[in-house]
Amino acid sequence: MSRLPFYLIVGVLMLAGIAMSVQRHVQFEIPWVPGEQRKVWEIEALVNFNAQDGPVMVDMALPSHQAGFRVLTENTASSGYGLAFKADDFGRRAEWSIRDAAGSQQLYYSVQMLVSPDSQTPDLTPPPPLVDIVWERPYDTAANHIVERAWSRSADNYTFARELMLDMGGERQGENARLLLTQYDLVPLVVRLLNHAGVNAREVSGLLLEDGRRRQSLTQWIQVFDESEEKWALFNPLSGEQGKPDNLLLWEAGGQAVLEVAGGTNSRVNFSMMTHSQPASAAVRNHISEDTLLNFSIHSLPLEEQALFQTILLIPIGALMVVFLRVLVGFKTSGTFMPVLIALAFIQTTLMTGLIGFLLVVAVGLVIRNYLSYLNLLLVARVSAVIITVIAIISIFSVVAYKLGLNAGLTITFFPMIILAWTIERMSILWEEEGPREVLIQGGGSLVTAVLAYLAMNNPWVRHITFNFLGVQLILMALILLLGNYTGYRLLELRRFQPITDEEKTS
Amino acid sequence: MKWLSWTSPGKLRSKGIIGMNRRNIRYIGRYNNRRLFPLVDDKLKTKLLAQQHGITSPALIGTVTTQFGVKHILDMLTGHAGFVIKPAKGSGGKGILVIEQSKDGAYIKPSGAVLNLTDIERHVSNILSGLYSLGGSPDVAMIESLIHFDESLMAYTYEGVPDIRVIIFKGYPVMAMMRLSTAASDGKANLHQGAVGVGLDIATGTALRGVQFDRPCYAHPDTGHDLASLVVPDWKTLLLLAAGCYEMTGLGYLGTDMVLDRRHGPMLLELNARPGLAIQMTNGEGLRPRLDMIEAQPEGQSPEARVAFAQQHFARHSELGLPADMPTSTA
Fold first, then answer.
1. Fewer CB within 10 Å of terminal CB in chain A, N or C?
2. What is the least distance, in Å, from the CA of B326 to any CA of chain A?
3. Of A376, A489, A499, which is closest to B19 when you measure between CB atoms?
């Protein structure tokens, strides 16, 4: 029985894997070590309105390159609608159109924004000449009072804007301000007052980015132009603070309406967002987007699928870890690849939370499962009962953790519940048949394996290599095949069989 | 300091010890055809096959295959004073119920506990629903006649029945040990639970050395009986029976579990296609040299010739008879 074909396959896999990796390294200049990680925000805007049985035009502002963010890719989903992108001095806009629409309509726009601190706002056009503001009585007097008061306490346009905003809101809000606010909304009012005083200002809309938020709406901000500096500055109209927060994405920065719908009622737009990190090189390449057939890589997929593959491609690392620990070390685990799934959950929950959560769920599950065994049920029914128990435990822990203010406790839901139920079932049988010692050995073995697999899978370098070099998968395959051919001793057998060799010495 | 005692791969290799990986790839993977595994994993199949091949095994009283059949179990049991109920696909001695005596609807276990017919029915029903089988798959309950254990070995065991494990490689008996249950092992013959393993000389069936919890042991910890005097009667018949299991199953690397019955002599209890490696500990010797020697032998030998070969080449002297040579303490 020749082992030649086996070593041939291993050799071919190894060589192909190395060749593919080197090719990607050379041709696409992907570094072997992860560089700087860049954050990418994925933002989805959902436009809702009721169409009135006729032609509809929807015009929505879109975000552009700006300080702190670069647009990577954008997609829309709007079946049956014509779509055009427009760009003018005031920013970019999308225009959807349809001849005949009725009922509730939904239009989707999603954009990936790369966080890039060195990105600059493109040159802003100087503002158009101001038009005269006309106030009705008695608002003109109030407006004049406020403007004069703020003007006297300021030195330039920016300080004037700040003083004005402080006077309009907060503790310093006076009688005049309250009178004006009965007629106008705060933000348009401040813009109007600034214009009244001959200062160029406009209302812009921004999105505060926070990971995993849904159904968010835009917030209003005010841009003020300073002639001497030839620059626009951003103000928070509520606090008068100048400057853009790092997590603020300006969605509409030209003083225009965010959403205009002709032929529809009840229109609104809300936003959901999430963030993930990717190597700077990958993000930049994505931006360049040179899609050729030869560029066979995960990076040609849409971002969401890429994120999925980032995890999938790590599983072979976990599997390799399990094979290594079982074949070379001799660990006993409960369920062969259960530790890999637990390690995947640890990636979501972080290690400490994951460990505590896992132990809590399994411990409580074992106690309840112990009672179930008195009921003498058929296996499938019993495991199903354990699954429901696990879900109940997880729900209770989540609620308790939330009430206690431990938000990390909520990540417990990332555990694969069916796997947990089977783990509890197996541990329980083991307990009954072999005693608690064996449960500790196998449970401990599983946990140690899971932790080691987690450490391997969560290593930034490993993540970088597996994600960027598909050839590595072939190398992993070759390694696992080689390990499957290992007939030598396991590390723990050196201890198990120690008494035999020990006697040799003494006798 | 058991935890700190490690040996080196070189020492193990020189002793001819085989490890799990080698056993799995080199012996089980190569000599045990997967297709044949069901023959030994299902005790009922093993038993029927043994009957066909004229290999002595405990008589089959009957089988229960359906929950409906559980109600008719009484018809099967009447006329049998003692019997054993076991799951066909159980492992590690799980789900085995031994009844030594039955009288007027009362069934007495070896421990003295008394069961009634409902208890027996529930046990059979549990077996059928797969409580004791691997993976919980539905199973069949077998009812066998009670083994009347050979009195000569009774003093060496605590509660349970001692069984004799013989490793059969390509039909040759390679190594043998007897497993004696103890109080620590709760009457079970599992070495890792504290049963005493006694290595047996292939030539004569006499005890070579005893091991409990991987440490040398010279007398039974509960009965105090000296292990040196242990001799398995009818040894050659036992080896011939065990060697015949190769022809019966076609499995090249096989663990045979035998018992000694007072009236019928050696009997085949069950077979194992993945026998463990603890036998090397109880014999104080590695399997490798013997397996290598057998691999060099020609095919097609009769069981008698194979047993004779093994008895000639694998003969050893007891380490128990000469207390002066023994290490005083290794623990």
1. N
2. 7
3. A489
Count Cβ atoms below 10 Å from residue A380 Cβ, excluding itself: 10
Q: Are residues B134 and B162 in the same domain?
A: no
Contact A91, A61 (CB under 8 A): yes
Half-sphere exposure of A194 (CA within 13 A, CB side): 30
The reported pLDDT for the residue numbered A375 is: 80
Question: Does the residue B275 lie in any domain?
Answer: yes
Please tell me the total number of residues recorded for chain B in this structure: 331
pLDDT in tens, A438-462: 888 888 999 999 999 999 998 888 8
B282 touches chain A (CB under 8 A): no
Instruction: Give the mean pLDDT of A327-340.
Output: 86
Does the beta-carbon distance from A501 to B7 stay under 8 Å? Answer: yes
- Across chain A, what does the average pLDDT equal? 83
Residue B282's domain spans which residues?
Answer: 2-39+151-325
The CATH number that domain A39-124+257-270 falls under is: 2.60.40
Q: Total domain count for chain B?
A: 2
A485 and B280 within 8 Å at the Cβ level: the answer is no
Tokens at A431, concatenated: 């307990």
| CA separation for the pair A168, A295 (Å, rounded) | 57
Q: Are B200 and B165 in contact (CB under 8 A)?
A: no
As a whole number, mean pLDDT of residues A196-210 equals 87
Q: In the 8-state DSSP scheme, what is residue A216?
A: B
Please indicate, yes or no, whether residues B202 and B317 belong to a single structural domain of this protein.
yes
B242 and B320 together in one domain: yes
> Is the pLDDT assigned to residue A346 strictly greater than 50?
yes
Bigger pLDDT: A405 vs A488: A488
Q: Are A65 and A277 in contact (CB under 8 A)?
A: no
Domain boundary among the residues B129, B145, B161 is at B145
The residues, ordered by sequence, that sit 6+ positions from A438 with a Cβ below 8 Å of its Cβ are: A430, A431
Partners of residue B17 in chain A, C-beta under 8 Å: 489, 497, 500
Residues B307 and B253 placed together within one structural domain of the fold: yes
Q: Is residue B49 part of a domain?
A: no
Return the SS3 of A38: strand
Tell me what the mean pLDDT of segment B308-314 comes to: 89
Of B145, B172, B200, which residue sits at a domain end?
B145
Residues B233 and B274 placed together within one structural domain of the fold: yes
pLDDT in tens, B227-271: 888 888 888 889 999 998 998 988 999 999 998 888 888 999 888
Across the interface, do B19 and A507 touch by the CB < 8 Å criterion?
no
Check whether residue B81 and residue B179 sit in a common domain.
no
The answer to whether B124 faces chain A, any CB pair under 8 Å, is no
Burial bucket for residue B313 (CB in 10 Å: 0-12, 13-18, 19+): middle
Residues from chain A that touch B216, judged by Cβ atoms under 8 A, are 499, 503
Give the CATH number for residue B300. Answer: 3.30.470.20
Task: Count chain A–chain B contacts defined by CB atoms under 8 A.
Answer: 91
Give the tens place of pLDDT for each residue, A458-506: 888 888 888 888 889 999 999 999 999 898 899 988 888 888 776 644 4
B200 and B263 assigned to the same domain: yes
Same-domain pairing of B237 and B310? yes
- Mean pLDDT in residue range A7-19: 93
pLDDT of residue A299: 65
| Contact assessment for residue A264 and residue A106, using Cβ atoms and an 8 Å cutoff | no
User: Given this structure, which CATH class describes domain A139-252?
Assistant: alpha beta
Question: Is the pTM of the predicted complex or chain greater than 0.90?
Answer: no
